Amino acid sequence: MKGSKKAKSISYAKWGYIFLIPFFLIYIIFFMIPVFSTFYNSFFENYMSGLTQIGPNFVGLENYKTILFDSDLPKYAYNTLLIWIVGFIPQIVVSMVLALWFTNARLKLRFTGFFKTVIYMPNLIMAAAFSMLFWALFSDIGPINNFLVAMGHEPISFFQNINATRGLIALMNFLMWFGNTTILLMAGVMGIDESVLEAAQIDGASSWKTFWHVTLPSIKPIIVYVFLTSLIGGIQMFDVPQILTNGSGGPDRTSMTMIMYLNKHLFSKNYGLAGALSVILFIVTAILSFIIYRNLMERDSSWETRRSKQAIKGGGK
Amino acid sequence: MGDIVLKDVNKVYPGGIRAVSDFNLEIKDKEFMVIVGPSGCGKSTVLRMIAGLEEVTSGELYINGELVNQVLPKERDIAMVFQNYALYPHMTVYKNLAFALTLRKVPKDEIDRKVRETARILELEEVLDRKPKALSGGQKQRVALGRAMVRDPQAFLLDEPLSNLDAKLRASTRTEIIKLHNKLETTFVYVTHDQVEAMTMADRIVVMKDGYIHQVGNPQDLYEAPYNMFVAGFIGTPQMNFIPTRLKKDDTVYYLEIDESKIIISEERFSRDVLDSYLGKELVLGVRPEDIVEVLDHEERLDTLKAQVEVCEHMGSEIIVYIDYKGQNIIAKFDSDRKTSMKPNDEIRITFKPNRIHLFDKESEISLLANKANMEKEESY
After folding, report:
1. What is the pTM of this model?
2. Which residue range is the domain that position B240 belongs to?
């Protein structure tokens, strides 16, 4: 009797930990160890000079000094941010307009489900495949140039032109991400109390003023979130320009991004410099992530205070 | 100045759902009009059509003599108080109050003067810098009212503004709104499902059900002379009792037969013609709880119903008694100073104040009193 009872009691905590083991194993092997070894490596001189292996010798912050003050990093940072901004501005504008259209019941739009799926689609395609597609389309002998020639236009060497290459990368980022942003903004707009928008109408606000004074401030946290996550994604921009320019970073490295530069160091087995660059990007990203976290938490906590205040007032009266 | 006229207004939602049918109403300037009805009766839709938030499917809507079917809400010069207050969550109370004026490009010092004046009236001066989330329910309510007040609109539209408040606050805010109406001298259109609010606040009440108006009148009229069984049951708490009966005539005396009992009808209350036309037919007797009388003498009388007390609720000034009469529930309201005490399962004999009873046609549910007065009105149904 006693024995059978004992057999039936299960230690759920124990099994919980057992089920967590695979995750932690993978996390430690593929995330924790690389992160720490990156930090570790960033303090060492460790590269090949011709056939001679130099290092690893401990050099302190020497690698950081080199990366920050004695490399082309500022140029690549400028490339990265420029391409990101050129892609982000149309992304947020188009997404905002689409989000407002899709959420406006008065427009009586049909097939919104279909359109939502379609605009999200590019996000599902692998960036590499998407880049190959664009490379094929816009190459010197690609269909776009064929079309231009057929129209009696001079062919354009897109990948020899700084603005065209940067523009194409930005365009692809825009195409891949505006669907995602639209969905996020839609969620934000749908979260606004319908009667608040109606109150604005009755108070005398035009559609534009309602948007500017009510809708936009209400979804500010989501816009901040979209902005910062996109910025983090932008900083890590790699696959699209890498494949589109075949790793060269476009005409005269004007479309080379920071991560492509990092990749170059890794490729030449310069682990010290690559490590230092990774750590710098890690710190920048961490700061941005922290801002997002604060932004989201602030929203939550204000909601909490409202609830607790209501409870207090309700109890008091 | 701010009269509102609805002429043959219909509202049909996509999918053919009829929300409002053949709605005809004239709301006079400075009137406090309450639209009351159970949920889903279309009362909010009427209000939203007046506000311009819903399109009028057919019919005409006039505000201040002007056809406004196609006029945008912002040009109608009406203010609305929403059920959930609909305050702008990211603005302080001050900005919430000032928003409408800012949009109209009113000079800053005038906005300030008006906002502070409104805040003073509504006792919101201390919370002007707070955001809505830091306000209590009652304060939010007052901000919502204030937002409407600063504008000096043609009409105030209020959509169940008290339903989110607790009972005590509701009663005090109710009085506040009445005072406000007297002070502002503006047309108020007030929607509620609570007949107590309707009775206490309204100059006139519109009773709606299933998209139709059932009766329009001042509170006393609705109480004394409900047009049909729905209005009779909806207005007044506890509800009016409905007892199936049959109309008979003994020589010259009309009486109602309920089982073995015979309730004599006063001919002053019902016209002879109407009674004659219903002779021998089934009717529904309507009696308000306060019009039930307990018969205390022990003689056998024909004009009483013998019933059993089920529950007594002592309200202080009165006792509400739930009576079981042959499986049918009857609610009676007695003064609490009556001599004998009443207990559950007590046998009780009751009768009705003869000049307070209502009779309804069993089929159409229309009052026989209304038949006398409103023959033409019935045809319009």
Report:
1. 0.77
2. 233-379
